[in-house]
């Protein structure tokens, strides 16, 4: 149960960081271009690290949520 809450928090934080990163870069967070996705992904990872929040399993190579 605790792990589920932790993962939910990580997922919500990732989603928020994704939108913030895209906005900071002046990019569309819903763009499907691989180059755009890579840029947003990199910035999102940086934000999560700065916030001290581990990446959710769904994006860190763990089991998909």
Q: Summarize this, please?
A:
The chain has 65 residues and is mainly alpha-helical. The chain has one domain. The protein has helices at residues 2-25, 34-51.
Shape: elongated
Subunit organisation of the chains: single chain
- Rg over CA atoms, rounded to whole Å, is 12 Å
Order of helices and strands: HH
Keywords:
65 residues, mainly alpha, 0% strand, elongated
List the helices and strands and how they pair.
Blueprint: H1 2-25, H2 34-51
Structure in words:
There is one protein chain. The chain has 65 residues and is an all-alpha fold. It has one domain (2-51). It is built from 2 helices and no strands. The protein has helices at 2-25, 34-51. The two termini are 14 Å apart. 15% of the residues are buried.
